Amino acid sequence: MSALPAALRESLEGEGLRPVDIALADWGWRHGGERAGALGLALASHAIGLGHTCLPLNALREAIGSASRLVNADRFTEELGTNALVALPDADAPLPLVLDGRHLYLQRYWIYERRLATRLRELLAAPPMPVDTQRLGPDGELFSWDWTGAGETNWQAVAAFVAQRHRFAVISGGPGTGKTYTIVRLMLQLIESALANDEPPPVFRLAAPTGKAAARMIASVRAGLSQLHASAEAAQHLPHDATTLHRLLRLRRGSTEPGHDRERPIPADVVIVDEASMVDLPMMAKLADAVPDHARLILLGDRYQLASVESGAVLADLCAPAGVNDFSKEQRAEAGALLPQEDSSTSPPALADHVVTLQTSHRFHADSPIGRLAAAINAGDAEAVADVLNDRTGEVRATFDTESTSIQRLVTGLADAYSALHEAANPGDAIDALEDIRLLTATRVGPLGSETMNRRIGATLGERYGFDPDTQWYHGRPIMIVQNEPRAGLFNGDVGVVWHDADGHTRAWFRTEDGLRSFHPSVLPGHSTVYAMTIHKSQGSEFEAVYLLLPQGQSRVLTRELLYTAVTRARNVLEAYGSREAWQAGVQHRIQRYSGIGERLAAAD
């Protein structure tokens, strides 16, 4: 039976707090936390559910919306300072809540954030290493083929320079800016430098948050290698595979403790992680701890993309204070011809020398409709967004309503597009057809959510090809894994297809980090149909054609980051359905995730 006073429970439920938040409040009340302790547990947990790593007491309204009405910030902070369930940062005994300045944490997240900041400060403080900039410049062999020309900066070369000079580096860039190609060149230089000095080549480990992202990472590395004239000796020392972070850290299902940590580090000299914007705070803390003291840690990602579905926005927290390519005078001097020697009266933070933002997309030109739309969204320029959407002559096609006739037309068009999936000759061709197109939705539930759209598209295809879409294992059903299963090598976000072979056997096929593999349906972890998927789930993916469906009205889920992520999943075609009001609301609304990472890293200065 609940110990919470009925009025307090009703207040928590009325503000939309989750059952787990209310259960924590109940536990707090039972264990002597009284009203402040119970509310502290509930609201800190609620903040975690919204993506924050803490509850910012000086920005309650901005962080948790109407739930902030449950407390008076100043009085609440004072009460927490003497509460039986709340510890201060220097306390000896652990307690479920930690009050660190004006930030209230669940203890576990306070520990993760402090561990991550401490480890990153160690990496930032490591002395810079010498770099052979001649090989990176316009006359060098590594980047000469795509040098932009006199007076212009080759940001890929700068990124390779920064990643060689420091033990910690962030390389941020939008789709097609060459993050993984830059890494190939970096790895080759490190290998050749070691060989020239009669030293063993470094051991590289490549990783990504999902199996699909890991497979794309190693495919990009191989494609980048094919464009370079690397020696056979150097090429053989490049990594031949990429793995998920779960496998890299040896995280087992049902456990939060990794096999690799500070005492048992990853056996590597260079750890490179792609799609780092998808990595949440707990995973990033575990990763940083597991990097050996002598090794480099390099994060690749898009600073403007949606953050992790879970708590934290670590990549954005690292990029924001660093600015955009705002380097110190010392770093510019070491870079020589790679960077213009600018006079500046200000000193950027220490983190700035470790973060490079790539500028030029090779997936779509900056002047293309998709490129212009992405740039306008990022800039928060609603008028420029409208200009691109109103111009129906390019690869961006917009329908400014979500009425029933328009949505039915969308469903019919998607059924036509997915016909190649159901007519494929083999599982590999079916997966290729599935990866060409995707419907992206802003929400999972509701009339315009992915669940509803999956049912409608499946029903239309079922009528055409004679299958029952309500059965789980119909031939050609596209599926997405929604639960990690490391033992099988399947991870959240992996996409595959159900296939009936000539003998009538049913298998599910996936293109994993180990290649094309089939699985018996009984061994699959949680999964769902994926003609449509949420924009959040599309991170790390790209498609020839993207169909985008926005919710009606000015939904609170619409944000600048959500629109940018959706638009940049498309390589060639974007067909969007949504009202002008929905576009405008999304462009004007930015995601704000609260954490203490920035303040903790400021100590590096």
Characterize the structure shown.
- By secondary structure, the protein is α/β, with parallel strands linked by helices.
- Helices cover 39% and strands 15% of the residues.
- The chain contains 23 helices and 20 strands.
- The protein has a six-stranded parallel β-sheet with strand order 7-6-8-9-5-10, with helices on both faces.
- Helix 7 packs across helix 8 (179-196), helix 15 (369-379) runs antiparallel to helix 21 (560-567) and helix 21 crosses helix 22.
- It is globular and about 65 Å long.
- It starts with 5 loop residues before the first helix and ends with a helix.
- The mean pLDDT is 89.
Q: Helical residue percent?
A: 25-40%
Mean pLDDT figure:
89
Please give the largest β-sheet. Answer: 6 strands, parallel
Straight-line distance between termini = 52 Å
Observed structural traits:
605 residues, 23 helices, 20 strands
Please outline the helices and strands.
Elements (H helix, E strand, L loop, with lengths): L5 H9 L4 H12 L3 H16 L5 E2 L3 H5 L8 H8 L5 E2 L9 E4 L2 E4 H19 L29 H11 L2 E5 L6 H18 L7 E5 L2 H16 L5 H4 L6 E3 H5 L20 E4 L7 H10 L5 E6 L12 H9 L6 H7 L19 E3 L11 H11 L2 H9 L5 E4 L4 H14 L1 H4 L4 H10 E5 L8 H16 L12 E4 L13 E6 L5 E7 L2 E5 L7 E3 L2 E3 L8 E7 L10 H8 L2 E8 L2 H9 L8 H5 L4
Parallel strand pairs: 2-3, 5-9, 5-10, 6-7, 6-8, 8-9, 11-20, 12-18, 12-19, 19-20
Antiparallel strand pairs: 1-4, 3-4, 13-14, 13-17, 14-15, 15-16
Helix pairs in contact: 2-3, 6-12, 7-8, 8-9, 15-16, 15-21, 17-20, 21-22
